[in-house]
Amino acid sequence: MSAGVFDLAAVVIALAAVFGYVNHRWLKLPQTIGLVVIALAASLAVIALDAAIPGLGFHAAMRSVVDRIDFHETLMKGLLSFLLFAGALHVDLDDLVRRKWAIGSLATVGVLISTFLVGYATYLVAGLVGADIPLIWCLVFGALISPTDPVAVLSILKTLHVPETLEAKIAGESLFNDGVGVVVFTIMVAIALAGEAGGASLSALDVVKLFLLEAVGGAVLGFAAGYIAYQAMKSIDDYVLEVLITLALVMLTYAVAIQIHVSGPIAMVVAGLLIGNHGTRFAMSETTRLHVENFWSLLDEILNAVLFLIIGFEVLTLAFSGKIALLMVISVPVVLAARFISVSVPLTVLGLRREFTKGAIPVLTWGGLRGGISVALALAMPETAAKPVLLAATYGVVVFSIVVQGLTLQKVIARTVR
């Protein structure tokens, strides 16, 4: 690791510790929300100070630091592997299996419905505000903003009292729909680039093949790697080595997924569910189980702090104008309305044969938080004229989701779940 990278990491960790302390002592918000709020407030203060006294150059200096953090690389090819595995490690597989139809439909059909609703609505709204964005790039935006973020969702759920049936649906959907969302995003970008290059467009068969390769391939890889790790842990009783095995499982499997072009997020979720359920029951002693769970819980909290701190500072990299600000504001109700429909349709159809917890639709709608994955995907979009506008819209939805929806979700649960 070069000195520059180490220095940057030291600054990020130090700020996470300082802001976390400020939040714990005075704001007393949930840790992830508190870090976003403080970082966002600090960013806006820098922008305001720079506007008042341009000669100071604070904004440019801070932006150069934030620009050095490649958010897409940091999250999608680094932090996400650890965060997804840690999240899946603590999810009860039996709960997921009992609710497999609801979770599966929300994570697939729901994501697709939301993608197209958000895409077409954004295209219409962008035209009304004078932002000329091609339809295909609006659909790319729909794909990246539709999946709920497991990191944001699971971190908020830790601080709330949610009925078990709803918690399983929210957690299960967020764990799987991010992988589906990344695949849909990849397909939409490929279609957009093929169209702009004037080449042959992707056929329906090509799309299906790509989806199966990414999604099913990721699940197979995650299960195979998880099973190998499970067998290795079952043959020994050494908690230090077994913690190391789980760490190697995450890093190596995710690296392989990237190289062979299958879904790393889905691989992490499958591996985490296998180790967290089957592994803890049959391959670990009680001492090892406690050390493995404590290690991953601590790592999860630290990486969450870093991630949400960076999200708060990303506002420094955005381009602003009247049109962009207006689209940011309008995107919030657009995404929420699409979320409501994409939740209502699958649950209403499934509700013809089974009964769901009262208030499931409003809670799942308001609890569908967006987070770092959406920001990372937006940053990964090719450099087009539409990118700055859609990146700003993404950031607006993500901040509203984490801060406003995250802070009020408990009230929604109290009012709708009886």
Q: Which features characterize this protein?
A:
418 residues, mainly alpha, Na+/H+ antiporter like fold, 2 domains
Structure description:
The protein is mainly α. The chain has two domains: 3-67, no CATH class; 71-416, Na+/H+ antiporter like fold. 81% of the residues lie in helices and 0% in strands. It contains 17 helices and no strands. It has helices at 3-27, 31-52, 58-67, 71-89, 93-98, 100-129, 135-145, 150-157, 164-197, 204-234, 239-260, 264-282, 286-313, 322-350, 360-366, 372-380, 387-416. It is globular. It starts with a helix and ends with a helix. The model has no long low-confidence stretch (mean pLDDT 90).
Could you give a quick summary of the protein structure above?
The chain has helices spanning 3-27, 31-52, 58-67, 71-89, 93-98, 100-129, 135-145, 150-157, 164-197, 204-234, 239-260, 264-282, 286-313, 322-350, 360-366, 372-380, 387-416. By secondary structure, the chain is an all-alpha fold.
CATH fold assignment of the largest domain: Na+/H+ antiporter like fold
Strand residue percentage: under 5%
Categorize the overall geometry. globular
Instruction: Tell how many strands the DSSP assignment holds.
Output: 0
Secondary-structure element order, N to C? HHHHHHHHHHHHHHHHH
Overall pLDDT level:
90
Structural class: mainly alpha
Give the N-terminus to C-terminus distance in angstroms. 53 Å
Summed up, the helix count is 17
Poorly predicted segments: none
Give the % helix.
over 70%
Describe the largest sheet.
none
Taking Cα atoms only, what radius of gyration do you get, to the nearest Å?
21 Å
Instruction: Please identify the top-level CATH class of the largest domain.
Output: Mainly Alpha
Instruction: Estimate nothing, just give the exact number of structural domains.
Output: 2
- The protein's oligomeric status is single chain
CATH architecture of the largest domain: Up-down Bundle
